[in-house]
Specification:
heterotrimer; A mainly alpha; B alpha/beta; C mainly alpha; B: alpha/beta; Rossmann fold; 2 domains; 8-stranded mixed beta sheet; 6-stranded mixed beta sheet; globular; disordered N terminus; C: mainly alpha; ABC transporter involved in vitamin B12 uptake, BtuC; two-stranded antiparallel sheet; 11 helices; 2 strands; 78% helix; 3% strand; cell membrane (chain A); ABC_transp_permease (chain A); LivM-like (chain A); membrane (chain A); branched-chain amino acid transmembrane transporter activity (chain A)
Chain lengths: 315, 388, 308
């Protein structure tokens, strides 16, 4: 791998996509398919979560299997805020990002001492710890989870309407993608990618490798927290299931099938996986077999993920 | 011309409102994969069996049952329920096994003014302050079976009891339900990890405490692990095992077998209950699925019969929500558990029975009804319910 | 009274040993595949599940636990062979990400296939009658079947020690674990060695599944809950090290058992009752993860790193 550089047609494509997204709720409503507004919002949110993992995994090369812990923490922060009467999105979303980011900073500070498989497993262990803590936390509903009363308000507007909430999720995703794109291109992003390629060399050149990685890990955790807060608002529930390792696995699958280290990899992966689930589950109750076989096929025949078809990586 | 058209359209719309629907749609969301799948599969099979008996009709109207798997995840359940409500516009919903999933899905269903007939999950929230005209539970309130165990342990004169449950809200509810009727000494409340595999440490502790009875509530595989290890540790000699019916029904017996013999449990239904409806149900179920039905299957079966009777009562006009609610409350169907009534919070007021596990006439290890524990028992939350 | 406390402690120590050895049966295969092939196999738990189902089915058909165990282990070994030849052989060369994705897919496929074949409800697998009760050892009763597991665990540990430390194949395995390229350069048929190790790992999985079936529920998804524990064990012990797997298993087994036995009592003595009853079980359930994080903090390669 080398530095990420978008393909020339990627920007116009992204803008066209964004414009299409802007009218999507109207189109769906016109065809009487309002249900799919919620489904599309779900895809946007998971796209954000997967993109945040892609920052950690793809750009910085840190293979974390506990990313769902930050995702779930964001969801709980939103739920706890709302249970205490804090309903302003401009307050809750940054808070969710901040708490999840701080948690990631703590986990990262310990985990980043290890390498390779050990790193995978120590992040997994922290994820499971967080899961069991939330299951046992009776004040926050324990295993039942913490339900939300309604949705947040954004600058005085309620997000209770599905279309309004769709736009809030779309804005969050778009801003995050722009941020990630800028980051990848900035000095920080270059250093992070160089560390992924050759850690020893960057160390020798005098870069504080550990600190760069830690900041990147915390940034990824913070973005995942934002996605979690959005998801809690979409479904009206913060549940410990969100923190379980299978959820981390699902996010990972999204990134891998989308394209590790490609700006749009997380988005593409979330879109493909959630649509696959939706379509396959409609056919048979045993759809997991179909999904498993498809994933196997992707590993074997499209090892770089689907986004690799749209962006190039060259030196 | 245009005036006439408008009049015609209005007339048609009116006709639509008064006339019966031509088809009833039921959204069935349940846990059909993962470790909890056995329960959902039984509810589904019971429901389908009733639909077969009704020739695929509910209240003489053709019915369509949409079945989906929630993968035991509140998040996915909510998404699926959304689809059934908004896209497929179902008339009833049912099927959810677990209370945490019910609590996640409930608000959307009620907001959509669709009746939910719970064939299992009976959270205390919906029995008390958050009771809702659109929620009916055809099974029990979660605490009921634990209360029944508490009562029988008290009545049988046990004095020194150990309680084992997982460390999560459902487990703590079980303890409070049990203690509502058991007034003796609780030597220890042991809280285990959710999904725990090995219980050796807890069993050693229990051996040390020497209780005369042990009450456990460990759903699914945890209960199977616990009973197997309890018996092989030889504790069943000095300590009598008690559990709510869901920890000792056909699914668990099938996995544990003979070691479960002699265990007591509580239930509102048993496959050996003497009434015509039940005999027919059990015989049909065994014929169709080649196994004995569990209480979950009986609840799924009742849920379908309940919808059928209510749709017939309103003559198929399911859009008249008030009338449909009255019809559901009236309960004009014959339950396989015998007679019961709905309380003001839409939870059953019914009898609870003591069952013991032993061998039946054909040599199968199964439940046998030993007598009644409660008659016309209501739940503890109904007073908090102000039904609109 | 003093006697009773000693007895309880003895029993809990035995429980810890038994739980640890049960984890070792699983971790041994996992650490070999992981260490030698450098392959993350999330589907190791699925082999354990399929093994348990095969043993249960064979035991029911033969009406004998022991023949069922033999047949089930053989079946799982054949399945392992097929998997290695068709899939894992391609995966060794790939990066960890592909391995995780592919074996994650295998989990989905295995769970669903088992559900289609055996149904969604757990199946029965009971110990032979002679072992179903407790036996008396030095003044207290202990389940006979758990003693059998201890015996099997010790036997497997001994056998593996002889195989790995004393035999020629074991030498190659150790060589492969510490430096794959060098071993290949020395003219050893590494591909055949990999196949053999993988099949052996699969057989150990089925042995673990079959032996634990009478204590645990044989059901869909049983592999995932135990897989994480096995991973914790080999990470603590150091990937690729059999000795590490054994030590890690025993540490995890005893810490988990003693934690569950002692923590609630300890906390009750020091904290208000309400706080203790909430905190105790919560702390006990995360104890082994805390332990693992702690060990990795001081020894980032585990206790016995195979690759120096």
């Amino acid at each position: 791998m080398a530095f990420y550089r978008p393909a020339p047609y990627q920007k116009p494509l992204a803008i066209a996509l964004l414009l299409a997204m802007l009218v999507l709720p109207n189109v769906l409503t016109a065809f009487g398919q309002e249900f799919y507004i919620g489904f599309a919002t779900r895809i946007l949110i998971f796209a954000l979560a997967a993109s945040s993992l892609n920052l950690v995994l793809g750009f910085a090369g840190m293979f974390s299997l506990g990313h769902a812990a930050f995702f779930g923490t964001g969801a709980y922060v939103a739920a706890i805020c709302m249970a205490n009467g804090i309903n302003d999105a401009l307050l809750v979303f940054p808070l969710a990002m901040g708490v999840a980011g701080l948690f990631a900073l703590l986990v990262g500070a310990i985990s980043l001492r290890t390498r390779g498989v050990y790193f995978i497993m120590i992040t997994l262990a922290f994820g499971q710890m967080a899961y069991y803590l939330f299951v046992s936390a009776r004040t926050w509903g324990g295993d039942d989870g913490l339900p939300l009363v309604g949705r947040l308000n954004l600058a005085g507007f309620s997000l209770n309407d599905d279309a309004a909430f769709f736009y809030a999720a779309l804005a969050s995703l778009a801003m995050s993608i722009v941020f990630l794109g800028r980051l990848a291109d900035a000095r920080f992003g270059r250093v992070i990618q160089a560390i992924r390629e050759n850690e020893t060399r960057m160390e020798a050149l005098g870069y504080p490798v550990f600190r760069y990685r830690l900041i990147c890990f915390a940034l990824g955790g913070g973005l995942a927290g934002l996605a979690g807060a959005l998801l809690a608002n979409l479904t009206g529930l913060a549940s410990p299931n969100l923190l379980q390792w299978m959820q981390s696995g699902t996010l990972l699958v999204m990134v891998i099938i989308g394209g590790v280290g490609y700006l749009y990899g997380g988005m593409v992966g979330a879109l493909i996986l959630l649509c696959l689930e939706e379509v396959l589950a409609g056919f048979t109750l045993h759809w997991h077999i179909g999904l498993g076989l498809l994933l196997l096929g992707i590993v074997m025949f499209a090892p770089k993920g689907v986004a690799a078809l749209f962006g190039k990586q060259h030196g | 011309m245009s005036l006439r058209l408008t009049a015609l359209a209005t007339a048609l719309m009116f006709a639509g409102a008064v006339h019966a629907a031509d088809k009833i749609k039921v959204g069935f969301v349940s846990t059909l994969s993962g470790p909890g799948a056995g329960l959902g599969v039984d509810i589904r099979d019971g429901f389908n069996l009733a639909m077969k008996r009704l020739n695929g009709k509910l209240g003489d109207l053709p019915a369509e049952v949409l079945i989906a798997d929630d993968q035991q995840s509140p998040d996915i359940a909510k998404q699926t329920a959304d689809k059934f409500l908004k896209k497929d516009k179902v008339d009833f919903m049912t099927g959810i096994v677990f209370s945490n999933i019910m609590l996640a899905v409930g608000p959307t269903v009620f907001e959509n003014k669709t009746f939910y007939i719970s064939a299992n999950a009976g959270p205390s929230q919906y029995a008390g302050e958050q009771c809702n005209p659109y929620f009916f539970n055809v099974a029990w309130q979660n605490d009921n079976l634990h209360e029944a165990v508490g009562k029988i342990v008290q009545d049988k004169g046990f004095k020194n009891v150990v309680i084992v449950t997982p460390n999560y809200p459902g487990g703590k509810d079980a303890v409070s339900g049990f203690k509502r009727y058991y007034k003796g000494v609780v030597a220890e409340e042991v809280y285990t990890k959710l999904g725990q595999l090995d219980y050796a440490a807890e069993l050693a502790q229990i051996r040390n405490l020497k209780p005369d009875a042990l009450f456990f509530f460990l759903p699914g595989g945890m209960g199977i692990n616990f009973v197997k290890q309890f018996v092989s540790a030889g504790l069943s000699r000095d300590t009598q095992l008690f559990a709510p019916g869901f920890s000792a029904d056909e699914d668990v017996i099938k996995a544990v077998g003979a070691p479960m013999m002699g265990m007591f449990n509580s239930s509102h239904w048993a496959h050996d209950m003497e009434n015509a409806e039940n005999k027919r149900f059990v015989a049909d179920f065994e014929k169709e699925y080649k196994r004995l039905p569990s209480l979950y299957a009986s609840q799924g079966y009742d849920a379908a019969l309940m919808m059928d009777a209510a749709v017939r009562d309103v003559k198929g006009n399911v859009d008249d929500k008030k009338a449909l609610q009255k019809a559901l409350e009236a309960k004009h169907f014959k339950s396989v558990r015998g007679d019961f009534k709905f309380n003001s919070n839409h939870y059953p007021v019914q009898n609870y029975y003591l069952r013991a596990i032993g061998k039946d006439a054909q040599g199968r290890v199964t439940n046998k009804t030993m007598g009644s524990i409660f008659t016309n028992h209501a739940d503890a939350y109904v007073a908090q319910c102000k039904m609109k | 009274m003093q006697d009773e406390v000693t007895q309880l402690f003895l029993e809990q120590a035995l429980n810890g040993l038994q739980f640890g050895l049960m984890l070792f049966l699983l971790a041994a295969g996992l650490t070999l595949v992981f260490g030698i092939m450098d392959c993350i196999n999330l589907a190791h738990g699925s082999l354990y599940m399929v093994g348990a189902y095969l043993v249960a089915a064979a035991a029911q058909a033969a009406d004998s636990f022991w023949s069922g165990l033999g047949a089930g282990v053989a079946g799982a070994a054949i399945l392992g062979l097929l998997l290695e030849l068709s899939l894992f052989r391609q995966l060794y060369k790939r990066d960890h990400l592909s391995q995780v994705l592919a074996t994650f897919a295998l989990i989905l496929i295995a769970n669903e296939a088992v559900r289609i074949i055996w149904g969604a409800q757990p199946v029965m697998l009971n110990p032979p009658d002679a072992l179903s009760g407790p036996v008396e050892i030095v003044g207290f009763f202990y389940p006979a079947y758990r003693l059998v597991i201890i015996a099997f665990g010790l036997a497997v540990a001994g056998l593996l020690y002889l195989l790995v430390a004393k035999s020629r194949v074991g030498m190659w395995v150790r060589a492969g674990a510490s430096n794959r390229e060098m071993t290949e350069a020395l003219g050893i048929n590494v591909q055949g060695l990999f196949t053999a190790v993988f099949v052996f790992g699969a057989a150990l999985c089925a042995l673990a599944g079959g032996l634990l079936g009478p204590l645990l529920a044989v059901q869909v998804g049983m592999g995932e809950s135990v897989l994480i524990l096995a991973f914790v064990v080999i990470i603590i012990g150091g990937i690729g090290s059999i000795r590490g797997a054994l030590v890690g298993s025993l540490i995890v087994g005893s810490v988990d058992t003693l934690g569950r036995a002692l923590l609630p009592t300890l906390l009750r003595a020091t904290l208000p009752a309400d706080a203790a009853s909430t905190l105790g079980p919560a702390l006990a359930s995360i104890l082994i993860y805390l332990l693992m994080a702690g060990i990795l903090f001081f020894k980032p390669q585990g206790l016995f790193p195979a690759r120096a």
